[in-house]
Amino acid sequence: MTSLAPSSFDLISPTALTAAYNRQFSNIPYAFELAQLVDAKTVLKQPSGDYLLKIVVPLLEIRYKAVNHLIARFSHTQIIELASGLLPRGLEMSERPNITFVESDLSAMIDLKKQLVTQLVEERSNLHFEAIDATIRPSQFPIHANYLRDSEKVTILCEGLLMYLTFPEKERVCANIREVLWHYGGVWITPDLNTKEQWHKMQETNSEVGGMFQTVSDLTGRSLIDNSFNDIEHARQFFREQGFGVEEHKMIEIMGEGEVFCKEQLGLDPNFVKYLLSTNSIFALTLDS
Ligand SMILES: C[S@@+](CC[C@H](N)C(=O)[O-])C[C@H]1O[C@@H](n2cnc3c(N)ncnc32)[C@H](O)[C@@H]1O
Predict the structure, then answer these.
(1) pLDDT > 90: what percent of the chain?
(2) Complete domains list, the chain, with CATH
(3) Given the DSSP bridges, would you call strands 186-190 and 154-157 parallel, antiparallel or unpaired?
(4) Ligand 1 surroundings by CB, under 6 angstroms
(5) Mutate which of 8, 34, 132, 161 for ligand 1 pocket (most atoms within 8 A of beta carbon)
(6) pLDDT tens digits, residue range 209-250?
(7) CA angle 267-270-272, nearest 5°?
(8) Which spans are transmembrane here (predicted)?
(9) Are residues 63 and 279 in contact, defined by beta-carbon separation less than 8 angstroms?
(10) Which of 11, 25, 172, 188 has the fewest CB atoms within 10 Å, i.e. the most exposed one?
């Protein structure tokens, strides 16, 4: 499989607007404000449909909150988020002065993000913005940045990135993350171990899902299905070969149904919310010793 030219990644960036649009139905701090600022609905043709709204909106809210729960369990004070897009986590977490938060994305996207954040809050000395293509070798990660402390561990995050990347690209992300974790110690938290098995199950539930995959693929030039792991054992094996141990947490084990705010907004069936929480996972990856 050949890897695509780096500029092809920019085609993925509009998906961050879709995510921002869908997060505005949650009670995630700053999600509504960010979505309004970019006017995501008019900037981008949303893959619309009632069913999609009812599946994508809760999934994005659950994913965000589950990542936050796992961050809290590790309680590292230095956070590097890859492919931040329009996620509000940097804004939310940097309200705590003991946290150093690094938001990163491709340069056009991180420039936009910085500009939007500046419209919402005063500049914060513990919130940094870096242009990082996570797949580039040698790494663009801030290994020796003067705002990071060698004595403290780092939590690296990405949500909604790996499923767009080919396997050679994922390997380069792994190599870059390995270097950071070797240097500082810490953990990589991500829900991105999506599998073909999972996508196929989703497609079976409703015909709109297949249409959404096609829209994403037309928009980004990348197939979510082809770039996914066959099943969870394939994902574990891939990361083992890249030097990582994988700890899986079912979303339902780390967060409660009551936390899913959008279920009232969208009139979701509580059993459906329970189903989403029990069929989706989040992962903590650490270096094998
Ligand atoms: C689906 S969006 C997810 C954004 C955000 N994480 C969220 O959950 O809303 C995918 C993001 O990946 C970013 N991206 C694509 N290729 C990338 C790369 N090679 N390195 C870093 N970020 C990349 C895009 O710019 C976009 O912001």
Answers:
(1) 78
(2) 6-287 (3.40.50.150)
(3) parallel
(4) 9, 12-13, 15-16, 19, 82-87, 105-106, 109, 133-135, 159-161
(5) 161
(6) 888 888 889 989 999 999 999 999 999 999 999 999 999 999
(7) 95
(8) none
(9) no
(10) 11
